[in-house]
Amino acid sequence: CMLSVTESFARVIHGLTVGHLTDHVIQRSKRMILDTLGVGFLGTSTDVFHKASEYSKIYSSNVSSSVWGRPDLRLPPPYAAFVNGVAIHSMDFDDTWHPATHPSGAVLPVLMALTEALPSSQKFSGLDLLLAFNVGIEVQGQLMHFSKEASDIPKRFHPPSVVGTLGSAAAASKFLGLSTAKCQEALAIAVSHAGAPMANAATQTKPLHIGNAARHGMESAFLAMLGLQGNKQVLDMQTGFGAFYANYSPQVLPNLDSHTWLLDQQDVAFKRFPAHLATHWVADAAVSIRKHLVTDRALLPTDCIERIVLRVPDVQYVNRPFPDSEHEARHSFQYVACATLLDGGITIPSFHKCQITRPQVRELLGKVELEHPWDNLPSFNTLYCEISITLSDGATFTECAETFYGHWRKPLSKEDLRGKFRANASSMLSCDIVERLIEIVENLEDLEDCSVLTTLLKGPSPPVMASKSI
Predict the structure, then answer these.
(1) Res 467 pLDDT > 60
(2) Is 60 exceeded by the pLDDT of residue 288?
(3) Which fold has domain 5-270?
(4) CB of 113 closer than 8 Å to CB of 73
């Protein structure tokens, strides 16, 4: 009998083994795990994380998992995965793949939470973790290859809320050892938890998309374990997973003996500053053009600049001429260009309210125009940014950025990826723990027991005196 697409996914999830992992995939996924942990630690300082964790405190259960960098806070596993997922995406600092999604944030918090929640008789090794993580990443990638719409920067649904929810369910199903039939049910249940609209991009709600994907995928696996059933053809149908895409044509996955990993062929991008990926081309082009406009390391007076033209793809939700909040500024071609021109680069504090509202920034923002050349398509694989600046004396300068450092065509060096992790994690953890985490993640395939990792993620133990009753 012919396998359905949905069955073929369940077979792959259930059937993949540590033996299927390649060296290439292990190396790439370890980089993703390190980066995701780092942005997660940094994200625990944000307002949206604070709101999500305050809300989650209403839940408690006998089984609990840690919130990264918060030794005093434990939550039921789905809610630990939720708040850690929110932290990861809280600043839009997490990894980005092609076709476009943020793959790691929906998957890693699920596996970390499950590692702690399952009985201690069940030891999970670093290889178990790498396998389940890669199953969660692979499922997301395969689903995005079923639609032309998915290969572009999104217009309707935010991809982590769609494919991330299924990747989370797949990773949880793998880690929990579900049968093929139950893996299939978990996918069906997850589809009914999927989908968040793009209108909430550039707001505090967008990070919830990653947190919800993590939580709902885990819940889908738990419900499947309890025997809950869904539509067994959910990935085959236009009214199933196809509801999220305009032109959905799913394919049966190949047999396991001819399995190849998408991550082997397509690496992810790592961000050097916390903003929408498309703005990274803008920042690079602005750094290049600034060299023409600087005297004694300071930018020319802003009134000498007549106009600034950015030639970028037509991505409406990153076209924000006068952003008012940090979340809008992270999704603004215009703001990233102006802040780079003024400051010489973008850093984490660039998105603080006091930076966004500076008079010089506002003055420059008023001079920016966007153009959308016909050949500059909204794809992270092909887009570019050209910037032209005309001065009041008539001189015009033009620079173009085709690939920024951190993109899969120009990957971050090992040292720079470690540097990003150190900078992010040291906001919550001591230097010793930070270095130990780097060592563990870089040698994850040799780790015998993942509880070593989860113990470090909690952060420093609080002093006993501090636990006063309220």
Answers:
(1) no
(2) yes
(3) 2-methylcitrate dehydratase PrpD (1.10.4100)
(4) no
- The H or E element spanning position 390 is strand 385-391
**CA-CA distance, 29 to 141, in Å (whole number)?**
14
Residue 281 contacts residue 385 (beta carbons within 8 Å) = yes
Q: DSSP string covering 183-212, please?
A: HHHHHHHHHTT---BGGGTTSTTHHHHHHH
Nearest to 383 by CA among 404, 366, 399: 404
3-state secondary structure of 405: strand
Which residues have C-beta within 8 Å of that of residue 359, sequence separation ≥ 6? none
Of 313, 317, 320, which is closest to residue 339 (Cα–Cα)?
320
CA distance 181 to 199: 36
User: Which is it for the CA torsion 442, 445, 449, 451, positive or negative?
Assistant: positive
Interval 358-413: pLDDT, tens: 999 999 999 999 999 999 999 999 999 999 999 999 999 999 999 999 999 999 99
Which of 325, 351, 324 minimizes the C-alpha distance to 336?
Answer: 351
d(CA 358, CA 368): 16
Residue 286 carries which side chain, given as an amino acid letter?
A: A
For residues 218 and 110, is the Cβ–Cβ distance under 8 A?
Answer: yes
Sign of CA dihedral 74, 82, 58, 63: negative
Count helices and strands in the chain by DSSP H and E runs: 18, 8
Count the Cβ atoms, other than its own, within 10 Å of residue 388.
18
Question: For residue 25, which amino acid is it?
Answer: V
pLDDT digits (tens, 9 = 90+) for 206-217: 999 999 999 999
3-state class of 294 per DSSP? Answer: strand
- Which own/partner contact pairs does 433-440 have at CB distance under 8 Å and 24+ positions apart? 433/459, 433/460, 437/34, 437/37, 438/34
Beta bridge partners of 388: 309, 398
Residue 427 φ/ψ, nearest 5 degrees? -65, -25
Question: Who contacts 111 (Cβ-Cβ below 8 Å, separation ≥6)?
Answer: 129, 132, 133, 136, 171, 172, 175
Task: Tokens 């991009």: give the residue.
Answer: 201
pTM: 0.96
Residues 87 and 368: beta-carbon distance below 8 Å: no
Strand partners for 389: 308, 397
DSSP state string for 27-63: HHHHHHHHHHHHHHHHHTTSHHHHHHHHHHTT---SS
Q: Give CATH 3.30.1330.120 domain extents, the chain.
A: 277-401
Tell me the CATH class for 277-401.
alpha beta
